[in-house]
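In the design runs reported in the main text, the only information available to the sequence generator was the tokenized backbone. The following block is the verbatim input for one such run; it is reproduced so that readers can re-run the procedure and compare outputs position by position.
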């Protein structure tokens, strides 16, 4: 399957640049898959509960976006530099995307008049850098003081209120981007969903580089995903198991939720699901000839086995066979 198969026209003037003040007034297109012809309905997110049934389970990604965008200077020359923190590789050493000239190994960086300093240690295969940070105090507190929330590249206006780029249920800090489907959810909407007898469960997947990285391979099956960390609790695993046992549906809010659920189910395709807190191996923008089958692995995908922590580089594309997720709500 070629990348060109996914081309479509999206006029720039139709890309929203500001969030709605009332989140769940966002438009919602409902696609009902049919054997002969799909049916479409045009609603708003306020109507979401109408499409859920008692006993269904709605699963949300409770990751929280870090203020991972840092603006600073090179020590000595004063040249401007911008970093986007992707993930912590070890204590105080991060994989980052970098913007600036001649940011080589050994380059010293300074942010916030010296409150935070860094040293470039190495170049990553993806074109980023490994940076070791030096500071007094707590890193996260300094990051919240000096950093900014990274916005998607299609958003060209600064947010007046950065809370609009967090879901209302965000809990676990670690993402370089928001799980955007969740931005349309309100407390009132969740109450409506619960009152209908629908379960609500949470997992965590910290969003990484692939949110910002285009697919460059002509054959999409050759594209390699960067690894993202996820956690599914015992409580969520039990809810999913019981939902499936009763023959009800799992509704995933956002593609990041889908990746976590399907990864926990033991799915594999052109990339390998990595579990058990193993650090992912780095790779670059190469497009190798695919050698692995786009088929489910022999690993058990019983819901009872879903409680876990790990890393995933699962890449889902047509004709993937879903094992856990029945319905997707996406942005």
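Verbatim output:
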């Amino acid at each position: 399957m070629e990348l060109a198969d996914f081309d479509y026209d999206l006029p720039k003037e139709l890309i929203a640049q500001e969030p709605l003040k009332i989140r769940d007034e966002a438009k919602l297109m409902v696609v009902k898959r049919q054997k002969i012809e799909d049916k479409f309905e045009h609603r708003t997110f306020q109507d979401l509960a109408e499409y859920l049934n008692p006993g269904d389970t709605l699963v949300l990604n409770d990751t929280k976006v870090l203020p991972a965008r840092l603006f600073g200077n090179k020590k000595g020359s004063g040249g401007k530099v911008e970093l986007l923190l992707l993930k912590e590789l070890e204590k105080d050493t991060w994989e980052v995307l970098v913007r600036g000239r001649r940011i080589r190994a050994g380059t010293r960086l300074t942010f916030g008049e010296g409150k935070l300093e860094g040293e470039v240690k190495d170049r990553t295969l993806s074109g980023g850098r490994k940076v070791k940070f030096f500071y007094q105090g707590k890193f996260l507190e300094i990051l919240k003081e000096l950093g900014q929330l990274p916005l998607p590249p299609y958003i060209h206006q600064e947010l007046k209120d950065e809370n609009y780029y967090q879901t209302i249920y965000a809990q676990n800090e670690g993402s370089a981007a928001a799980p955007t489907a969740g931005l349309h959810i309100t407390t009132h909407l969740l109450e409506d969903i619960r009152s209908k007898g629908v379960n609500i469960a949470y997992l965590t997947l910290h969003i990484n580089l692939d949110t910002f990285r285009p697919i460059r391979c002509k054959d999409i099956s050759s594209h390699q995903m960067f690894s993202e960390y996820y956690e599914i609790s015992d409580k969520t695993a039990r809810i999913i198991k019981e939902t499936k046992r009763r023959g009800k549906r799992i509704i995933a809010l956002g593609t990041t939720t889908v990746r976590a659920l399907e990864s926990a189910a033991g799915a594999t395709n052109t990339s390998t699901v990595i579990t058990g807190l193993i650090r992912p191996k780095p790779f670059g923008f190469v497009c190798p000839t695919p050698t692995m089958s786009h088929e489910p692995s022999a690993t058990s995908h019983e819901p009872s086995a879903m409680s876990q922590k790990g890393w995933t580089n699962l890449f889902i594309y047509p004709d993937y066979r879903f094992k856990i997720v029945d319905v997707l709500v996406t942005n």
